[in-house]
Structure formats: C-alpha cells, structure tokens
Amino acid sequence: MKCTRCKKEALVKLKRHNAKFCGDCFEVFFSRQVESAIKRKNMFSEEEKVLVGVSGGKDSMSLWHYLKKAGYEVVAIHFDLGIEEHSQKSRQIVEEFARQNSFPLEIIEVKKEVGFSIPEIKKRIPYRPICSMCGLIKRYLLNFWAFREHFSVYATGHNLDDEAATLLGNVLHWQIDYLSHQHPTLPSPHPKMVKKVKPFYTLTEEEIMIYIRLHNIPFLEERCPLSRRAKSWDYKEALNFLEEKSPGTKHMFWLGFLETGQKYFRQEEPPLHLGECSICGMPTTQEVCSFCRLIQKVKEREEKYLDYNGGK
Ligand code: FES
Ligand code: ZN
After folding, report:
1. 3 state SS of 258
2. So what's the pLDDT on residue 312?
C-alpha cells in the first residue's frame, strides 16, 4: 500500500477520502483539515488566547495537543465531576499530560463550585437525564470561567461523528430550533457569553484515533459510567452501520447539511432579548437562568432527601 501523496509506504487508509497516507502525510492531512476549519468558520486568530475544555478523552486530548503543537496560545480547563474512579482517572491523565509537557491547566471541581458532585445531583433529581444536567453545568462553568478570565473563545473536541449523531437526533425529533443553530462556530450573542468553536468538526473518530496513536497521547478509553444509556451512542452505531455499507455517509450527512441542508431550517428570529439572571448575573432569557434553577432544585430536593433519610 503506497501513500497517495508521497508514494512511500502508507500506514493508514481513509476510505471516505479514498486516500492512503504515510505518517508524515497523515500529519499534513490532519493539520490542513483543522487549519481550514479554523479559518473557514472564523473560529480564532493566531493571536487569540483559546480556552480548551479537556475531559481526558481522545478528542479533547488531541485537540489540546494539536493546538499547542501548532503554536496557538492555549489554556486547558478540566472539570472534576466527582464520578468516583472515572473522574479520578480522567483527572490524573490530564494533570500528568500537562505536567510532562508544561502545558497550562486549570482544574475545576464541580462539587466545590456548585456544592454537589454529578452523582449527588443524579441522586437528588433521578427523573431528569443526568447527561443533560451535567452538560448544562459544564457549559455554564466553562463559559463563566472563560468570561471571568477574559477569553474570547473556547474550543471543544467535538468531531464529525459527534456532530452527525447530534444531527440525526435533531432530525428524528424535528428539533427545528437546534437544526437552525447546529454549527461548528457559535458566535457570542452577549458580552458575557464567549464564542464556542469545534475545530475538529470535519475529522472522524477514526482519524483522531490515528493522530493520538501517532503521537502517543494518553487518554481515557472508558465511557462515563453514568452516560451508558445515552441516545447519542445509538445514533452513532446506526451511522457507523451505514458508513460501513457506504463510506462517506457521515461526511455527506453532516458536512452536506452545513453546506446545503441547513438553510432550509434557518428561522427568521426576532432579536434575542438576553437579560441577566437575578441570582448569578449571567445572560438568560428568563428571570433566573437554567443553571441557577437547576441548582435551586437540587437544594430543595436535598432538604427533602435529608428529611427522608433521617438527616444522613
Ligand atoms: Fe457528564 Fe457523564 S460526563 S454525565
Ligand atoms: Zn444564574
């Protein structure tokens, strides 16, 4: 098998691009994908300071590694969710990687910030999917921290497979509002809201896996034990089934949506009137933001929970 670019011995085969690459040419391919995503979707400039959310998983670890290697000014932020062994392992990987490479890193302990760990929240509010509450908390804290520390942009490691699965979920439930907004760059709608970007939106999980192996980047392979029943995993499996039958399906679905399909879902929207939350002062369309409402609810349930369990 010969490399499509340089004709040396190829290491990897990318079916959807109908290409084979040696290690060096794969690097060129990878970096072109990311750099053109950053430029094409106006994510950030070389001078901007970027906050990167790192969970310890393969996507965020590779994004952190790539952006540092490419010379961007990056600070990583990791949330310790308090999910026992899983959180300890993720934190250890992230801290060790930062220490070995002298990369700046901030650790935010969710329990310290909001008074409860993620499993404690799940116990108090068992009827709501934990992943959506956890996502809300992480997004809020990430934005809050980025705003407070004067970052204008934060980046996450979402890849093409993640976005295609989200898109499938949005289509299956005809979530027109989400279909109108799903994008690799979400500009800031308010001075206290930081721009969010996904520089890996054109790269598949498989391609990120190759990058991580080529660079020997450590990462946590196991899934979060609380998200085992997340719908997005089913959507990914369904898309992988189709991809296997016809390579390029996920690419066509997600990137085709951005190029061609999304315009049909764009809604004429009245200007968004964002006020400030009466509790925390962060932007919201309601009197109290969804983060503060969730925390209030957890505290209410905490009192009931303690009564029920005799104060334990
Ligand atoms: Fe948030 Fe698992 S990472 S629930
Ligand atoms: Zn609030």
Report:
1. helix
2. 52
Phi and psi dihedrals of 68, rounded to 5?
Answer: -65, -45
22, 210 contact by CB (below 8 A): no
Whether the predicted pLDDT of 303 surpasses 80: no
Residue 52 one-letter amino acid: V
| pLDDT at position 248 | 92
Q: Quote the CA–CA distance of 258 and 265 in Å, as a whole number.
A: 11
For ligand 2, an ion, list residues with CB under 5 A.
Answer: 277, 279-280, 289, 292
pTM of the model: 0.92
| Helix residue ranges per DSSP H, 215-288 | 231-245, 249-256
Distance (Å) from CA 20 to ligand 2 centroid: 50
Domain range list for the chain: 31-269, 273-312
CB distance 145 to 154 below 8 Å = no
Pocket test of ligand 1: the residue of 84, 90, 118 to mutate, having most ligand atoms within 8 Å of its CB, is: 118
For the record, the structure tokens of 38 come out as 């950053």
Rounded mean pLDDT, 281-295: 95
Given this model, what pLDDT does residue 5 score?
A: 92
Q: What angle do CA 289, 292, 293 make, to 5 degrees?
A: 80
Tell me, using a 6 A CB cutoff, whether residue 240 lines ligand 1: no
Report the pLDDT value the prediction gives residue 16, as an integer from 0 to 100.
86
pLDDT of residue 311: 54
Q: Which CATH number fits domain 31-269: 3.30.300.30, 2.60.120.1440, 1.10.357.10, 3.40.50.620?
A: 3.40.50.620
Percent of residues in the chain assigned helix, strand, coil, to nearest 5: 55, 10, 35
Q: What are the Cα distances from residue 207, in Å, to 14, 66, 232, 309?
A: 8, 13, 20, 49
CA distance 28 to 36: 12
